[in-house]
Amino acid sequence: MLDKNTDGSGTEANGRRAGVRRRDFLAAAGTGAAVTFAGCIGDGGGDDTITLGAVYLLSGVAEQLGASSRAAAEVAVKQINEDGGIDGREVEAIFRDHGEDPQGQMRSLVQEENADIMLGLTSSGVTLNSGPTIEQLEVPFTLTDIGTPFPTEPDVDTYGNYYEDEGTAAALPNLFRTNANTSTNTYAIAKWINDNYGSARIANLGPDYAYGQQCWDYFKAYSDGLGAGHEYVASAFPSLGASDMTPQINQVLDADPDLVFTSFWAGDVVTFVQQADEQGLFDEVDDVFDTIGSDPNGFAALGDTMPEGLHYSGWYWGSAFDNDENEAFLEAYREEYEDTDVIPYPSFTGGSSYAAVYVYKEAIEAAGSTNPDDIISEMEGMEFTGPRGTWTIDPESHQASAPTVIGETSMDADVPYDGVGLTNTETYTLDRSTAEDLLSGSDLPPGI
């Protein structure tokens, strides 16, 4: 979720146009034009193991988010291995912290550990700046945590190539995403508010970097596209990881909004709710929304400080899906982490991280190999059934049509910790045509 780095470190593109499918590019360019590195084509070292490399933020401000993604992915790997592996080959998962050199970690996993497939990341900025590295390494890379729509926007003609001309289309031939991104997330909240509240006075509070700013921009664009007629009365951005948000909370209170839109996540959810409660914000407004605030870790930390009746959302919530695959995931997750320091209930990244491992399993088994081109070909257009129901991976954008969940905070939710969960959940999906219509007049790419 962290911000886009604009220092130029991610501008190299090797003459390629973002959004062109990898196999089409190679066919058009000829064998002499392809950039290749020793060890780049992952083959698990030629042994009986398939190596999964993963890079997440496992320390610092986003540690909670990265650790939750790792926890879900490890459950999937364990299940797969207990069930015979992938095509009879055991999966070995190697997780690395972004650290100060995320691109170096990626290269090490592919070139030294012979990773066949890759997962990540926790930072939108790292993702965008790592685009040239991800493309050069050629191994399929699936995003499970990234909000910004840019990495799955292929239309460079309309939105400009991120890697060449300061555009916002940054799709890459070997990059996929299994979580609903900010575009779907904010559409869902805009649609819910429009359907349930109609026009309102709305204020914004969010972290002061690209993710928070993009969420507010997309929410307003989708609301306007829906004809909601809102009055946007205030917008304030405390710094990411701020210890004191009271000046921004008071700025919003002074604007007398009906509703508050927020885009806090991880520890910032805890800080905001505690200080907003102290300032009386929840008594003064009708409702508060959050894009990816529905996290068991934050809810457990807040306990009974978290008000009931607010509408929080995320990419997954355990009780929002009634199917056998979800029940199996929840049970396996509970068994793996009960009596440990990990809350035995998946975070909002759980569904996308868990599913990504199984997407690779299906693709490799359908291809009958770990050749990157073959895996990519199988993933493009794949229909997948998992804990979040059945969805597809768009063959052009490589974005999954996975849903966003919105629910009502309640102490009556069935959760294995002391705190609220989500009840009365609803799921929302978004197709490209609808997104383009609603975003018309803005310069925001759908990314789906």
Q: What does this 3D model show about the protein?
A:
The longest helix is centred in the first third of the chain and has 20 residues, at 63-82. The model is unreliable at 1-45 (pLDDT under 50). 38% of the residues lie in helices and 16% in strands. It starts with 21 loop residues before the first helix and ends in a 9-residue tail after the last helix. It has 448 residues and is an alpha/beta fold. The chain is globular and about 65 Å long. A seven-stranded mixed β-sheet has the order 7-6-8-9-10-13-14, with helices on both faces. The chain is built from 17 helices and 14 strands.
Number of strands: 14
Average pLDDT score: 91
Our count of helices gives 17
> What class, by secondary structure content?
alpha/beta
What percent strand?
15-25%
Report how far apart the termini are.
Answer: 18 Å
- Percent helix, as a range, is 25-40%
Spatial arrangement of strands, main beta sheet? 7-6-8-9-10-13-14
Strand count, sense and barrel status of the largest sheet are: 7 strands, mixed
- Rough outline: globular
Stretches with pLDDT under 50, minimum 5 residues: 1-45
Determine Rg (CA atoms, Å).
21 Å
Topology (SSEs and partners):
Layout: H1 22-29, E1 49-56, H2 63-82, E2 90-97, H3 102-112, E3 117-120, H4 124-129, H5 131-137, E4 141-143, H6 156-159, H7 162-165, E5 175-177, H8 182-196, E6 201-205, H9 210-225, E7 231-236, H10 246-254, E8 259-262, H11 267-279, H12 281-284, E9 287-290, H13 296-302, E10 311-314, H14 324-337, H15 350-367, H16 372-379, E11 383-386, E12 389-392, E13 404-410, E14 421-428, H17 432-439
Helix pairs in contact: 2-14, 2-15, 8-9, 9-17, 11-13, 15-16
